[in-house]
Design brief:
478 residues; 10 helices; binds flavin-adenine dinucleotide; single chain; globular; seven-stranded mixed sheet; five-stranded parallel sheet; 28 strands
Length: 478
């Protein structure tokens, strides 16, 4: 192995998504004279831009795809290596890349993200959306589609249900309301009319630089100011998309550009049949198909007994952490959701190996107002905090759990409404003794406060103090 050793670094970070890039940026500040490497499988990296601290615990930012040279220019002690990590040798502190090279580390942070959980491995008929490549594929296939079946009830499904035009969408959700991950049935009722209404014209085009890789010249990067109809070029095993991933992209099917959406509540996918299977299988033939006539490339049988033919299925049913190359030969503790378990210092069960972002599962004792959700806010926060923990480890310093893990907070947009989520915004895990305070003005605003024992989410917090003080600070501020 020794002959393959290319270089030793003080710190290596794997993954060029938000978590990995934030981690190297912070490491570079904390350990300015230490040599560090970012090893990433994709050709572009994700950077946080226009970061704004909106309130003490609320942040807003945008995500840009950039050439890694931009990062190397800013961080002189950083080397970016574009290659996939295929193995990790925790005993000898070495990572091995697909290029057959070995790199030694003193501290390692795994930020390899996650990939869509697919309903079936049939890539021809079942699509998952994760990176620019997969969106481009989706766009291309949607352009010829008359009907798609959308499965899932998280953020991606919500965005697609709202954005897709010119193609009938059958949306299968396992819950009794849409958007269950982010809001309750009342808020869903508030949003449902937006699905049938015409979408407002976009106020202004997205002015953010978007970098694309071109097919013909895979190593050259061009800045593309929101060209309509142009997705981002192919990246290899790229990172998850940024906040405005569908902005400036045409998500239109083959029919007239109108919206036709039906929601099938409280059901999951029972089986997926190809057209051939539909013709030859007795079970498939017995399925109750609401369609009259015609054939479809694929059929989806739902647990409510209905079967829909469609051009393809979009599987938006969550993600699986990208842990595979790191697990073989090592004894990592893995959580039930498949993530690498990390403690309050973002440290995995292996010495000197940290993890942040979608790949990890936060397994410390959480504050009563925080929960892990695989979102870019948390990817940034975890990447930043992991870097501080790594630096503290190198410098033999102690470090306290970052304040951002005291209160869950996230700003996003659903159906053109700005949404701010704080604490246990959906009463997650609370006993039935909680109360809801609600203010709703049809088409304008939906405000919900969850209260338990007189404590609830509020945007105003007291400065400093212990978490108990801060909790007290929530009392009476609603
Ligand atoms: P990623 O961004 O996935 O980055 C992982 C990196 O690791 C990539 O650079 C990849 O190339 C690299 N990598 C993987 N394996 C290896 C390997 N073996 N060797 C080397 N490199 C490797 N979040 C929100 O907050 N709001 C939203 O509205 C929202 N919408 C979303 C819409 C879509 C379509 C998707 C897919 C996600 C969305 N998310 C949203 C989630 C958010 O994008 C992720 O939580 C966040 O980007 C995770 O960041 P990360 O750095 O952990 O992982």
């Amino acid at each position: 192995m020794a002959d393959k050793l290319q270089k030793s670094f003080k710190c290596i970070v794997v993954g060029g998504g938000i978590a990995g890039v934030t981690c190297v940026q912070q490491l570079s500040c904390s350990l300015p004279s230490a040599d560090m490497a970012l090893i990433t499988a994709g050709r572009l990296i994700k950077a946080v831009t226009n970061y704004k601290q909106v309130a003490k615990v609320l942040e807003e930012f945008q995500v840009e795809e950039q050439s890694s040279s931009v990062l190397e220019e800013k961080l002189p002690n950083l080397t970016v290596i574009h290659s996939a990590v295929i193995a990790l040798h925790t005993q000898s502190h070495l990572v091995e890349t697909a290029g057959g090279e070995l790199f030694a580390y003193e501290k390692l942070c795994i930020c390899s993200g996650a990939r869509p959980k697919l309903l079936a491995e049939d890539k021809q008929h079942v699509l998952g959306i994760r990176d620019t490549d997969s969106v481009q594929d989706f766009q291309k296939r949607l352009a010829k589609a008359r009907r798609i079946v959308l499965v899932g009830n998280g953020g991606i499904a919500l965005e697609l249900a709202y954005e897709v035009e010119g193609c009938e969408v059958i949306w299968a959700v396992k819950d009794n309301a849409i958007g269950n991950t982010f809001f309750d049935a009342g808020a869903a009722q508030f949003l449902v009319p937006s699905l049938g209404a015409d979408k407002p014209e976009r106020a202004a085009p997205c002015k953010r630089l978007r970098y694309t890789t071109q097919d013909a010249a895979p190593q050259t990067f061009t800045a593309d100011r929101n060209r309509r109809g142009r997705g981002c070029g192919p990246t290899q095993a790229g990172s998850a998309l940024g906040p405005d991933w569908h902005e400036g992209m045409i998500l239109k099917g083959a029919e007239q550009p109108s919206r036709k959406l039906s929601v099938e509540y409280q059901c999951e996918v029972e089986q997926i049949f190809t057209c051939q299977e539909m013709l030859h299988s007795t079970a498939a033939q017995q399925a109750h198909t609401p369609d009259t006539g015609g054939t479809w490339p694929v059929y989806v049988q739902l647990t409510n007994g209905k079967t829909y033919g469609c051009d393809f299925v979009v599987s938006a049913t969550g993600v699986t952490p990208n842990t595979q190359p790191f697990l073989t030969g090592n004894n990592f503790a893995v959580a039930d959701d498949g993530g690498l378990r990390v403690d309050h210092h973002m440290m995995t069960s292996q010495p000197d190996v940290y993890a942040a972002g979608d790949v990890c599962s936060a397994c410390w004792e959480h504050s009563p107002f925080w929960q892990q959700m695989r979102l870019w806010t948390q990817a940034r926060q975890m990447g930043y905090y992991a870097a501080r923990c790594m630096a503290a480890g190198v410098l033999s310093q102690t470090i306290e759990l970052d304040f951002c893990f005291e209160l869950f907070s996230h700003i996003t947009t659903f159906f053109n409404y700005k949404v701010v989520l704080l604490g246990k915004f959906n009463a997650q895990g609370l006993a039935s003794d909680h109360q809801l305070l609600l203010r709703c003005t049809k088409g304008q605003e939906y405000v919900k406060v969850v209260l338990q024992g007189g404590i609830g989410g509020a945007t105003r917090w007291q400065d400093g103090g212990s978490s108990a003080d801060r909790r007290d600070g929530l009392r009476g501020n609603l």
